[in-house]
C-alpha cells in the first residue's frame, strides 16, 4: 500500500534524550495551545494507547522544547494524540488528549467543569468538609498535577514540567468554579531529579501562611510552608471517620501521625479513652497539638522514631486496642520498591505485636508502585511473622498457645474525590487494610 504524503513541514530532529545543557524553563504559559502557533512532534517506535510514554519508546523528536505540547505520531503519519513533552524525564510524553483534535480552550474548560462537578455536585463534599481534592492528575485529565481545595486556597503540586508551566492558568480557571480566591502551586519533591529543574513555590498575593479547615465538624489547621504535598492529606478523610467509629472507650496508638488526623478524629468523633500520636518530625507534631487544642480534646503526642517507640512499648508490655500505621511514602521510584516493601514489612511486624487481643489495626501504604495485592501479601506475611514472635515470647514464659489468628475485616483506599483512571491504574496509590487480631 502506498504511504500517504506527509504534508507537515519538516523540522530539525534531535535525540529523544534531548539537550543536556542548562535547566529547562519553568516560565508560566497558557493552558490551551495557540492553534495558529507551530507545534512540535514526537514519533514513536510503535503505537500505544498508554497515557504515559517512556523515553525508550520515542524514535525521534521534531522542534520541541521541554514542557511543550507536542503531537504524538506512530510511524510517520498516524496521529495518536497530543501530550506534554520533557526529554529529561523518564516519562518522555504524558498524553493529554487522544485523537486528532487539538486540546483547545473548550477542551480544557470542559475538563475543569467535569472535575469540579464530581466533587461538588455528585459527591456533595461541601456539605461535610472544605478540604478535598479537586484535580487528581490523570484521573481528571491533568497528567502529573494534583489540586486540593484547602479552605479558600487552591493548593497544587506538579509532578511534571509541562503541568508546572501551566499551573497558574489552571488555578486561575479553577478558582471561580470552586469559589476560592487564593492559590499556591509547587513542584513535587522529586521534581529536580525527574524533571530537570527545581522551581520555588508560587503563591498568590495575599496567600495566608495557614488556614483552618473542617472535616465532619472537626477543625484542623493547615500550614503551607514546609508542609507535605498540598498541605493536608484529604485522601484519608473517610478512613479517619470510619476508624473513629470503632474507637469508643478504647486506647489508640497513631503511628506516623503527621498533624494528628487519625488521632484527633479518634478522640473527638470516636470518643476514644486514651490516644497517643507518634511522629519523628517535631514541626507537624506541634501543629497536631494545636489541632487537639482547637477541638478541645486531649491527645498525647510523642516525637520519636516509630521503630524505636514500638520496641520500647513492646519491652514494657504495652498494648493498644486500636493501632493505626500510616507511614509516609516509602517508594518513590522503581529502584526503591524492594527496600520499601522490606520497610513496610518491618513496620507492620512490630505494630501488630502492639495490638491487644481482639484489637483492631489499620495499616496503610501510599506508595503507588506497590500494588494492592503486593501490600496485602506483605501485611499477611507480617501478621504470620508477628504471630510467631508473640508465640515465641509466650512459650518463654512457660505457656503454650496456637499461633495468633488474624482476620482481614476490610480493604479500602483513598476517598472518592481521588478517583482511579481506568487507563492508568497507578492513580490508585493508597491502600488500607483493616485487621482484627483475634487474641
Protein model, in words:
The chain is an alpha/beta fold and 439 residues long. The protein is built from nine helices and 21 strands. It folds into three domains: 13-98, Roll (Archaeosine Trna-guanine Transglycosylase, Chain: A, domain 4); 105-211, RNA methyltransferase domain (HRMD) like (Transcription Regulator spoIIAA); 233-437, Rossmann fold, CATH 3.40.50. Residues 1-21 have low confidence and may be disordered. 28% of the residues lie in helices and 28% in strands. It is globular and about 70 Å long. The termini are far apart. The protein has a seven-stranded mixed beta sheet with strand order 1-4-2-5-6-7-3. It has a seven-stranded mixed beta sheet with strand order 17-16-15-18-19-21-20, sandwiched between helices. It has a five-stranded mixed beta sheet with strand order 8-9-10-11-12. α1 (105-122) packs across α2, α4 (237-244) packs parallel to α5 (261-268) and α7 runs parallel beside α8.
Query: What can be said about the biggest beta sheet?
Result: 7 strands, mixed
* Global Rg: 24 Å
Q: What's the count of strands?
A: 21
The percentage of residues in β strands lies in 25-35%
Low-confidence stretches: 1-21
Tell me the distance between the termini: 72 Å
SS summary, helix count: 9
Strand order of the largest sheet: 1-4-2-5-6-7-3
What percent of residues adopt helix (DSSP H or I)? 25-40%
The overall average pLDDT, rounded, is 89
Q: Provide the succession of SSEs.
A: EEEEEEEHEEEHEHEEEHEHEHEHEHEHEE
- The total domain count is 3
Subunit arrangement of the protein: single chain
Q: Which secondary-structure class do the elements indicate?
A: alpha/beta
CATH topology name of the largest domain: Rossmann fold
**Mass-distribution shape:** globular
The level-1 CATH class of the largest domain: Alpha Beta
Fourth-level CATH superfamily of the largest domain:
Vaccinia Virus protein VP39
CATH architecture of the largest domain: 3-Layer(aba) Sandwich
